[in-house]
Design goal:
- The N terminus is likely disordered.
- The chain has a domain of 165 residues: Collagenase (Catalytic Domain) (3-Layer(aba) Sandwich), CATH 3.40.390.
- Helix 3 packs across helix 6.
- The chain is built from six helices and nine strands.
- It is 32% helix and 16% strand.
- The strands form two sheets. Strands 3, 4, 5, 6, 7, 8 and 9 form a seven-stranded mixed β-sheet that branches. Strands 1-2 form a two-stranded antiparallel sheet.
- Strand 5, helix 3 and strand 6 form a beta-alpha-beta unit.
- It is globular, with a radius of gyration of 25 Å.
- The relative contact order is 0.12.
- It is of the alpha/beta class and 245 residues long.
Length: 245
């Protein structure tokens, strides 16, 4: 082989190497898959979970690395056992509390959290129009507070014509459906006070059961109404979980 063909082949190989390196650099920089320093793709983790209890600033971020939120469950629910005392005055609404199998959260713990919200004097019992009592499996009831994985929320709410996109909760008929993702991770305005958001989402969806629709922010710096869809922003209001704070 003469020197000229060898030169041409060498240049072609060098150009090929440059093109290949450029392509790999682009793929690594633009891909949604994270890459390690060595150039090996790192498996993306599932959405993280945080504690049910209130947390201090900075703690929530650390807790989010510990567990994962299941995207879907079995679609079947376990109703919490036991009956609570009736809270409030006025028309009695009996309710059950249920957790989806596969949500990895104990139904008794969820029931205790919901009971606390429903009995709080800042909640729907405040004006003496309603009282609420939790009942167990097989008992007559008016609605069910369900904690469900995002996929199951989408299915239940979608059947009622409500789009939840794996993120928000809804009221669908007699079902008050709470999204597990939001129950555990809250929203930015409640990032370090998850328990306050848990109060809010129960109050908000039960409010729909009682016949209330969405409202807007009443004024900059004022508490956001419980029936304001705070997930989509506060519009100048301050965070508030209660119908009658």
């Amino acid at each position: 082989m003469t020197e000229r063909p060898r030169l041409i082949i060498g240049v072609a190989l060098a150009l090929s190497a440059v093109v290949l390196l450029a392509f790999l650099g682009y793929a690594m920089s633009s891909s949604t898959v994270p890459w390690s320093a060595s150039g090996v793709p790192v498996e993306a983790s599932a959405t993280p979970v945080v504690s049910m209890s209130p947390t201090r600033p900075g703690v929530a971020a650390a807790l989010r690395k510990t567990v994962t939120v299941p995207r879907s469950g079995s679609g079947k629910f376990v109703v919490a056992r036991g009956t609570s005392a009736a809270a409030g005055a006025g028309i009695l609404h009996r309710y059950q509390v249920a957790v989806e199998v596969g949500a990895q959260l104990d139904e008794a713990d969820f029931a205790a959290a919901v009971e606390q919200t429903m009995a709080d004097p800042r909640g729907w019992t405040a004006r003496g129009r309603w009282r609420f009592q939790r009942v167990g499996p097989g008992q007559p009831h008016d609605f069910v507070v369900k904690l469900a994985t995002p996929a199951t929320v989408d299915r239940i709410c979608g059947a009622a014509g409500i789009r939840t996109s794996g993120e928000v909760s809804c009221r669908a008929g007699a079902d008050v459906v709470i999204n597990l993702r939001r129950w555990l991770l809250a929203i930015p305005a409640y990032a370090n006070t998850q328990r306050d958001y848990q109060h809010l989402v129960v109050n908000h969806e039960v409010g729909h059961f009682l016949g209330f629709g969405h409202v807007g922010c009443p004024g900059k710096g004022r508490p956001a109404p419980a029936m304001m869809p705070q997930y989509f922003g506060l519009d100048g209001c301050t965070p508030n979980a209660w119908p009658f704070p």
